[in-house]
């Protein structure tokens, strides 16, 4: 039996936010949360930029320094197992964060799956057809579909009788792309609520860990992080900033 197969948390159980130490969980959102809180901040030059790019929030983290050391493949660990257990952790932790914010992410506040000022993702059905979904519908659909994959022993095997299939890297990239969109939506549409909860150190650390891991194992495409000219993904700028600051590898 493999190391990670033995130690992966039983399904349905909750784990502490990665890479936090359990000291402080994000509190429940209170009545003071205001969806109309200012998203943008004016810097000295009069240029507007998102709050998550502004000091001190951009530097706020539970984990200081570079994430490289915690994402590299440990000795004697199968790379598939390492990716599987980390994808599981990112999914679980992001699910918990979104659960706290869910009451603020409604069909009225978020009628589209927005991830930047001019970028909204439609949902692509298995037939390939794109359909419109509100952000909560989109996120619920993504999370439910990922949960089904994680629960499928053929996709995420947890015992020695099952092996990872050759499709697992492609599935991991698919999951990663969808989780990135949820991170991007939360930063774009709900960062002020993260600030109200004083959860920005947790959330930044979780996202930086997610990006560093994705970089290390080639799970993310640059265009998914940054978007395209005229259709920029908001967190693409955060990714650039963290590369400048040394939080992420260049
Ligand atoms: Zn939302």
Key terms:
disordered N terminus; two-stranded antiparallel ribbon; 250 residues; binds zinc ion; 8 helices; Butyryl-CoA Dehydrogenase, subunit A, domain 3
Distance, first to last CA: 36 Å
Architecture per CATH nomenclature, i.e. the level-2 architecture of one domain:
Up-down Bundle
CATH superfamily of one domain: MOB kinase activator
| Order of strands across the main sheet | 1-2
Number of DSSP helical runs: 8
CATH class of one domain: Mainly Alpha
Q: Largest sheet at a glance?
A: 2 strands, antiparallel
Task: Let me know the average pLDDT.
Answer: 83
Order of helices and strands: HEEHHEEEEHHHHEEH
Radius of gyration (Å): 18 Å
Helix content: 40-55%
Number of strands: 8
Helix/strand-derived class?
mainly alpha
Present as ligands are: zinc ion
Outline type: globular
Approximate strand percentage: 5-15%
Uncertain spans, ≥5 residues at pLDDT below 50? 1-40, 42-46
Fold-level CATH name of one domain: Butyryl-CoA Dehydrogenase, subunit A, domain 3
Pfam family, one: Mob1_phocein
Protein name: Maintenance of ploidy protein mob2
Keywords: Metal-binding, Zinc
Organism: Agaricus bisporus var. burnettii (strain JB137-S8 / ATCC MYA-4627 / FGSC 10392) (White button mushroom)
